[in-house]
Structure formats: C-alpha cells, structure tokens
Write a structure and sequence with these properties.
The complex is a heterodimer of chains A (399) and B (172). With 399 residues, chain A is α/β, with parallel strands linked by helices. Chain A has 17 helices and 7 strands. Chain B folds into 2 domains: 99 residues, no CATH class; 73 residues, no CATH class. Chain B contains 8 helices and no strands. Classes of the chains: A alpha/beta (399), B mainly alpha (172).
Amino acid sequence: MGPLVPEIFSNEFNLVIAFFVGIGFGFILEQAGFSSTKKLVGLFYGYDFTVLKVFFTAGITAMIGVLLLGHFDLLDLNLIYVNPTFLWSAIIGGCIMGAGFVIGGFCPGTSICAAAIGKLDGMAFVVGSFFGIFIFTEGYPLLEDIYLAENWGAVRFDRFLGISPELFAFLLTLIAVVAFFAVTQIENRANKLRTDFSKGRVTRNFALGFIPFAIIALLAFTPSRQEYIQQEIREARQQKKCVFKEISADKLAFELIHNHYKINLIDVRDNEKFKEYHLPLAINIPVDSMNKREWNEYFTQKHNINIFYADVDTTAKKACLLARFLGKSENYILRESTGQFRDIFYNLTPPPPDAHKDDINLYRFRFQAAADMLNLENALKKFTQPVKKKVKKIQGGCS
Amino acid sequence: MKPKPYMNPYLAGFFLGLVLLATIYMTGRGLGASGAVKSAVIATVEVAAPEHYDNTQFYAEYDEKHPEGPLRNWLVFEILGVLAGAFLSGVIANRAAIKLEKGPRIRNGLRITAAVLGGILFGFGSQLGRGCTSGSALSGMAVMSFGGILTMGAIFGSAYALAYFVRKLWLK
C-alpha cells in the first residue's frame, strides 16, 4: 500500500525518485509550452489558455487518481501530505505571487524550464526568485506574525464545505469542463478563429469529458475496499457462515510454553484494557486499528499463527475475519475470554483430595503452566513486544 | 530547423497529472519548485556568511530541522531532474536556444528588469504562501488542500486583476 516511502523505498532512494520525477515534470512542462513566457501570460490577456487547460487537467487527473487509489486501498490517504492552511499568508502570499506572475511572466517551476532551454528571461526570473526568497528569509522576524497567523492545519476543501470528496471532485471537474469550453471560445475569438462544431469533434469532446465523471460516479456509488471488507464481515457474522479455528485455553498455555516463538498472541481489545490486564506474551492490536500499516506484517506473514482473544467472543471473531482480508496468515481465536483465561490459570482452586485423577492432573498442569507463562513473559519481555514502528506523516510542500 | 509544435494541452495535463499521482503514490508528497530555490538561498547564506547564518533565528531553526543540510533535499533533486527533463524536451523539439522572449513593445532591458522583479515578487510570495504554483496550487489541488486551492485562487485572481495595468509589457 502506498505511499511507498519510507516502508518500501528508503529515504535515500526517495532522492533518486525525486530526480526521475523531476525529469518527467520538466519534460512535460516544456512540451506543454510552459517554457514560453508569452504562452504563459496569454492566460491573462485571453489569447492563449494553455496554462489553464494543462493545469486544471493535471490537477483533476491527480485528484481523481488519488481518490481512486484510496478507494482500492492502494494508498493510505491519512499519510499523504496535505498542505496546511494558514489563512492570511496563503491569501497574501498568493496575491504577491500573482503580481510576480503577470509582471515576470513565469512562476518558479516554469522559469526553471525556460532557463533550462536557454531563455534569458527565464534565467532572470530564477535570479529574481532567489533574491525574493532571500528577502523573505532575512525579513522573517518582521513577517513571522503574519506567516503563522490563522493556522487551520491540514484542512481539506471537501471537509471544509462538509461534502464528500467525491462530490467535491465532481464539482471541480464540472467547473473545469465548463471552463475548458468557455476559454476555447474566448481564445478563438481573440485569435479570430472559428470554433469547430463539426459532429465528430463535438462527439469526441463529449466522450473525453465524460471519462472523469464516469470514474467519479464509480467512486461515489461503489463501496470502497474498506467498506467492502466491513460489509463482508457484517454479513458473514449475520449469517454465521464462517467457521473459526478455535484453540482452548489449556492448549494455548501448552503452546505458549513450548512453542511461543511460533505464535502471535494478539489482544484485540483497546489499549486501556490491555494495560489493565493481558495474557502472558500477548501483544495489543485493537480491532479498529488492525488495518493500519504498522501491523500489516502480522497478517501477511506465514511463519507464525495468530491467535486472537478479547473479552467477548464476537470481537475476537471480528478480528479473525478482518485478518482474512488483510493477508494470508493463519488465524485462530481463543475459545475462552480474557477473564476466563485468567480464572483458569491464576485463580486456581485446588481440587479436593478425593477428586478424580484427571482433575488432579489438570490442576497440576495449570498450576505449573501459570508459573511457566509468567516466567517466560519476564524472560522474553524485551523480545515479545512489537518494535514500535513510527508511522510518520509525510512532509511535503516547499519547505 | 523549425521548432516542433507544443503538445496538446489536455494530453500534457493528463501526463502531468499522472506524474504528480505517481509522485504522491511513491513518496506521499507532491511536486514543487520554489523550495529548491530556497535551499539554494540557505546554502548560499551558510557558505557566504557563516556567522550571520549561526546567529539568525530563521537559519538556526532551519538548520535544526534539516540536520542533513539544505541541499540534501527532495526538491533540490527534483529540480535537477526538471532542468534535465526540460532541456531534453527542448532539444527534441528544437526549442533549445539562447533567446529572450518579450512583448512586442518593450526593450530587452525592460524585459529582463520585469523578469527579475517578477521573480523577486514570486519568490517572496512563495515563501509567505508556503509554496508556489507547483507545490501549493497544483499539488494542493490533487489532495484537495484548502490552503492550496485558496493560494491558487489568490495567484490567478491577483494576476488577472493586475493584467490590465501591465499590459504594455505583453501586448501590442
């Protein structure tokens, strides 16, 4: 599941990716004509709307793509960088940038492209932006207040409006498509061209414009992979059609003592309950956070068996079902609840002297196992708890 | 040789969107540009005025947050790629040449002055607004960032509002 950095690609390799991504970025900007200042400012005088067309198409392609990857659980949308909103600096900074755009005829990325192919005005702009940034870094104490004012955090536009991301994508795409049509009219008028309304052309444009809406409809009206999993689990539980592999407390104790390295004993209750009391050698993965990437490897490995337990049998079953969707690990549930397990081993009452031989043997086994498990836990304390993996939110933007 | 025509804008936009999407998928972050220039500024200050660098709060804080140095930065490597990619495209399309592009009514000197001034404004604004057209507006749009889309509106809004006053730079 994406993002691939830093789990699959290292932070070092990330810089190599940056270089190759940059090649694609620069190549396309140049191919689109963004190395030409006249083409860029044409946007503001109505004779060339290339910038708007490229920019909007790119933004919408990437936006729908991000939603699509999230829909199929290929990209963790909680981890990707969302530019934070600092209200005043965003507006004031944007206005100053706009002035720079129409006076200088470039933005930083396009000026670098222009400079790369030998445009002197592009180079001049790059030099200017160097000094502009220098003014900012030197003048920072004076600007700090406005720079940090009205920090709203990483607000998303759809959440700000209180609508679903699909609806927001739909609205933005609609605006883009209408804008594409309108600016083409303006462009043709400014350049004294006639708009091509031939049947073939209109059909083709309609077909192309339809694609993003079709994808958004797919996103909006089909359940995402997460929703699908939840639904499957709910149905499986309702119909009680799933068969669980169960393990009894005595068997678990025996396995723990003899084969603890082959078992992941997983407490799926919440963190507080886990801290209060948990089974020897257990780790804590609350059922609601099982699909987080930090636990991923427990459910995709094939070496150890996972044994789930909770206070109520339904929670453990839910976890076990969920694990089936998360990977190919072998999963069991503990037949007894947490409390029952504790009673069996740690609230032992000795059998009366005239008890059956089996009962006495069982008592002896449990008595010994209880002590062994505790000893084992103490001995292995350092090794059994999962390495705390820090899932870091990715830093991006221009800092 | 005549320069080749530019790519269809929608097709270019689609490809640009795919590059951005691939970047987000792989690295979790978007594209950018002005940040690389910022790195260059900070590296320059560090070398040219080490004492000032150590004694100024802004640079000291930057140094603390970026122990690997200003140049070992994602955007710096990305922009090196941009230079290579744009050059490649320019060569393929016969557009790579030393050239000054300007409006029909102005002299070269004024064009260069305007470009430098525009650069200063854009550079300054990009730092205040935490990113330029690439890092804030385009990448922000891809992840539906409120701030990014707001900055985008401000950039294009203010450019349109000022276009009339600087039309002599660009129009006949």
